[in-house]
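Sharing in case it's useful to others searching the archive later.

Someone asked me privately for the predicted structure of VOC family protein, so I'm posting the question and my answer publicly. Question first, with the sequence:
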Amino acid sequence: MSVELNHTIVHARDKRESAAFLARILGLEAGAEWGPFVPVSTSNGVTLDFATVPAESIVMQHYAFLLSDEEFDAAFARIRQAGITYYADPHGKQPGEINHHHGGRGLYFHDPAGHGMEIITRPYGSDEPSAES
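And my answer, the predicted C-alpha cells:
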C-alpha cells in the first residue's frame, strides 16, 4: 500500500462556520458532524476535519488546494461575490490580485479562524515549457 494523507484536523473558532466557509468556496459540501468534527472531503480522498477549539489555541496553518481552471474560476467568483479579501502572495502584499506562478493561476485568502488558504491551478514546480524550449 502506498502512503497517502487521509485526513487532518483543522482548528476553528466555530467548526460548522469554518467547514461551511471552505466548502462553499471550493464548491464542496460540509459533511454531517461526526464526533467533535465537521468534515470536508476533497476529490482525492483527503478529509479536513474541522474542530472547535478555544481561539487562543488556534495556530495559523496553510492549506493549498489544486483546482482545475473551471473550478478556480468558480471559486474565484464565489470569493469576489462574498467580498473576501484575496492576495496574489502569501504575505498579503498584493491585495486584489492573483498570481500566475508555475504556468497557472493562484490566490490566497483567510478562513474565519485565520488560516491561510490557497487555491492554485498548477502544482508548484510544474512550469510549462517556454516558447524557446
